[in-house]
Structure prediction request, 341 residues.
Amino acid sequence: MRIGILTGGGDCPGLNAVIRAVVRKAVTEHGDEVVGFRDGWRGVLDGDTMPLDVPAVQDILPLGGTVLGTSRTNPRALEGGEERVHSTLARLGIDALVPIGGEDTLGVAGWLAEAGVQVVGVPKTIDNDLDATDFTFGFDTAVGVATEAVDRLKTTGDSHHRTLVVEVMGRHAGWIAVHAGMAGGAAVVLVPEQPFDLDTVVGHCLHRFASGRSPVVVVSEGARPADGSLTTATGEVDAFGHERLGGIGQWLAEVLEHRTGHESRAVVLGHLQRGGTPSPFDRVLATRFGLAAVDAVHDGASGVMVALRGTDIVRVRLADAVAHLKLVPVDRYAELEVLFG
Ligand code: F6P
Prediction:
């Protein structure tokens, strides 16, 4: 078979591990040819490819980013996009496509599957907000980076008797904040799912100061005060309609300084959470996803995504995977709230 593979949306640690696993298994076990499309759906639209044989994927397992490049190009938003995609796939003789991506990339994948293309998706996002899989690779690495940041900020915060606010990624889902906040023993964790009350946050910070320590506050980029007193949308929107966010960390640090009487500083982790080598957990998950995707292709499956359920890799319908975002449930947040202050 001739299998096309692409990585779309924001990059994430583990993408290269999937690419390597797909190529190694497809080539050595099935004698397939694997064609890499550069920069996500942009490469499919333009027919921009690179050959992927076993030597081409040597040593890429621990490498961050994606050797294929990525983009947020949305063929559905472009005039004639669907025809261009079909014409590239036909011209290159692609029998099956393995798109690796989040909600947006896999949304396009589901649309192509409905149009008759054999598609097996692989979920990725550091945000861990894709429904139908227990975890996406990239998340564990991002949580590791964020937890290390909390640990480091704690010691400098304590030394200077300051509040340290650390802003982490998560536009709609606060998974990184919840995990890093719990792992790092943050004084407060704020997530997009639960608009926060500023007086309560101030109370937790003062309580931490009263106990002789300084608070670290972990805040998702998409978190908001409940009174609607802040908007962090920059006005910029990507090809999938997502607003670019920014500013909650700095805003909060300024307000907390004023309200607690203690100096505050903000740190925005941003793309540090997305770059660099994947954790062992993410390498293993990404590799297992890649191997399972090749199995699915050879079983003739289409319109599906490989997913983690417990410790098993299963197949779920793409349509189900992208129907809802997996948000932090109220009880998960409540579990953490007990530890605030
Ligand atoms: O979707 C993953 C993600 O890392 C989000 O957490 C974040 O809001 C966004 O990508 C940032 O995107 P960009 O790479 O366009 O800055």
Q: What stands out?
A: The pocket of 6-O-phosphono-beta-D-fructofuranose is lined by residues 10, 102, 125-127, 169-171, 221, 274 (CB under 6 Å).
